[in-house]
Design a protein that fits this description.
The complex is a heterodimer of chains A (113) and B (113). Chain A has strands at 4-7, 10-14, 19-25, 32-38, 44-51, 56-59, 62-67, 72-77, 86-91, 107-112. With 113 residues, chain A is mostly beta strands. The chains are: A mainly beta (113), B mainly beta (113).
Chain lengths: 113, 113
């Protein structure tokens, strides 16, 4: 069964820093790898989706990479801002049988001015 | 505006009193699913539906029922709620295949006394 781990669990940084959030998964046979943002008490917003055949995706200050062979994905946030404060989750649905996406427990990010 | 809506957003009920949480999407998506989110356990899928009249169990289906009579609606039914079903519930949808981006509703916070 797929297991997804996110490190670190929490991160507090000053504004302007470049950040790296990590996501690792045990089953490399995945449909895709999706990164989400969740603000307190709210739903998840999709940030980036990397198909299994892709290596990376970029959107503005965000860049996500995927290395299936090592079972890892990295979300890079450039020039962090206080508005980036949120919990970031990754999901890595394995292809074996049903589509049941497995989520990591998230990285809680605080960017202070 | 493309969105997934859930109702109610907040609900406090008592053990054994049947309840339904509604979910509706206006994007003509084929795939819909329900998750629960609990501290320390992350997001776990309850049920999913690949299309009208096609539903299947996720990771934690016990105590829940779903139906998919129309493409846009996917209600979650708790026939006899218990306190261990106190949680934050999310509905999500995607276009059709497991490689598509998931869109989440705003969440329903349920408390069962």
């Amino acid at each position: 069964k797929q297991e997804v781990t996110q490190i670190p669990a929490a991160l507090s940084v000053p504004e302007g820093e470049n950040l790296v959030l990590n996501c690792s998964f045990t089953d490399s046979a995945i449909y895709n790898l999706q990164w989400f943002r969740q603000d307190p008490g709210k739903g998840l917003t999709s940030l980036l989706l990397i198909q299994s055949s892709q290596r990376e995706q970029t959107s503005g200050r965000l860049n996500a990479s995927l290395d299936k062979s090592s079972g890892r994905s990295t979300l890079y946030i450039a020039a962090s801002q206080p508005g980036d404060s949120a919990t970031y989750l990754c999901a890595a649905p394995a292809t074996g049988g049903s589509y049941i996406p497995t989520f990591g427990r998230g990285t809680s990010l605080i960017v202070h001015p | 505006e493309a969105q997934v809506t859930q109702n109610p957003r907040y609900l406090i009920t008592v053990t054994g009193k049947k309840l339904t949480v509604t979910c509706s999407q206006n994007m003509n998506h084929e795939y819909m699913s329900w998750y629960r989110q609990d501290p320390g356990l992350g997001l776990r899928q309850i049920y999913y539906s690949m299309n009208v009249e096609v539903t299947d169990k996720g990771d934690v289906p016990e105590g829940y029922k779903v139906s998919r009579k129309e493409k846009r609606n996917f209600p979650l039914i708790l026939e006899s709620p218990s306190p261990n079903q106190t949680s934050l519930y999310f509905c999500a949808s995607s276009l059709g295949t497991p490689t598509d981006t998931q869109y989440f509703g705003p969440g329903t916070r349920l408390t069962v006394l």
